[in-house]
Fold:
Amino acid sequence: MEFAISILLSGISVGGQYALIAIGYTLVYGILRLINFAHGDVFMAAGLMMVYLSASLPLSVSVPLMVILTVALGFAIERIAYKPLRSAPRMSVMISAIGVSYLLQNLATYVTGGLPQMYPSIPGLSASVTIMGATTKWVTVVTPVLVVILVVALTQLIDHTKVGMAMRAVSRDFETAQLMGIKINSVISATFIIGSFLAAVGSVLYFTNYRSIVPLSGAMPGLKAFVAAVFGGIGSIPGAVIGAFLIGICETIIKGSNWTVFSDAFTFALLIVVLVTKPTGLFGEKATDKV
Amino acid sequence: MLKIEDLRVNYGGIEAVKGITFEVPDKSIVTLIGANGAGKSTTLRTIAGLVKPRTGKITLDGEEITGKAPNYIVSKGITLVPEGRRVFPDLTVLENLKIGAYLRKDSLTKDLDSIYELFPRLKERSWQAAGTLSGGEQQMLAVGRALMSRPKIMMMDEPSLGLAPLVVKGIFDIIREINRQGVTILLIEQNANMALHTADLAYVLETGRIMLSGSGDEVLKNEQVKKAYLG
Structure:
């Protein structure tokens, strides 16, 4: 029983961390129709920045500073690597994204010398807690709560604010949105800022669990979050969140039942099954366009 | 007054507009007519800022607005109702209207009331997704959305496209009504008959050049126009 609870808890927790990354993929795809391959590496960069910042600054300063720098990184990537390609074929932007991804990984290798870096322990999150007999870290409990709060806040922003309305309009029709007076580039920047912010928060939760950071640390969680976004229907926020929780829980169950080696394989097998049977995912937009 | 001087625009690798000059006097209804590919849409899109001209000059009340960004053009009081209506299908009718006023910061209540008065059907459907409206209703919504920016000049690209004749008549009645309320109209149409009967001033475009101009009635009586556009 305790074992089952502890598996479920950690599954929900990992799922929540994937969800925070997956939203970044899905938001950007919704607006630019771009798979932002660099997103997982922004997540890794957030982790590394935290390592270096916390070495000389107290947590109360380094955490917010890390969030700000991550947001700035996401913003800068869009402005430098994607914006000049706005009218280029979609494939060019995607290649640019892959380039940024490798650039970040290589920069990380250069900065760290390729050595794994130890994520700082964050007192409130790293401490142990016992729930219904199962012992775990506080981060396991905090993650789902925080994810729900952030997702609700984000949906409110998108459904009920002017920026949100502009985001929905731009995601549907660039040109007509411009005719309304909307500045497309500001809306796209806002999307990257939100995505990077969530990745920064996700990195704190994720790396508190998996404390060793290497330059490729963003690749696997990034890919899994991407699968979650596809599974839920890329472009859909609730889809990405539900997809992420499902993948997180299934993965932990597989790990818990001594099939650890297959846990990654499961995720990607799921991707193949989804793409073959329901390419638009659980909540994906229909392919038909009504004129 | 909107003035277009010697405007040349390349579009899709060809010169779609080949040096046209025309004027849109305040509070008038002006129409550009011409066959497909005459450069009508490109002209409106260039004025709206969606396309950059190769050469030429566009001035509004003396201020040059050539090649400015669309949001600047909207803020100056020029709006475009695009071809095919292009309402935002997943936004509600009310949201579509609100987004038309995106650059405004004052209260929208009065404007919404007057648009609902002009189009009672939109009020009944204000909570419906715009994608579920009929073609005629979507055209009304597109016009209402454009009016929400409180334009001085409303440009309309083929408002009658794909609509039933009775609905088209309704749309033109509305265009006249909006003009009576003080909005200048620049209209392009393939339905030349309807457009010329409505317009104060008409220009006939042929493959990127203005071939003829005059009052709506004059152009309507022109033998060449009769043969080519009125059948």
Observations:
- The first strand of chain A starts at residue 117 and ends at 118.
- The mean pLDDT of chain A is 92.
- The CA atoms of residues 75 and 190 of chain A lie 8 Å apart.
- The beta strands of chain A are 117-118, 128-131, 134-137, 212-213.
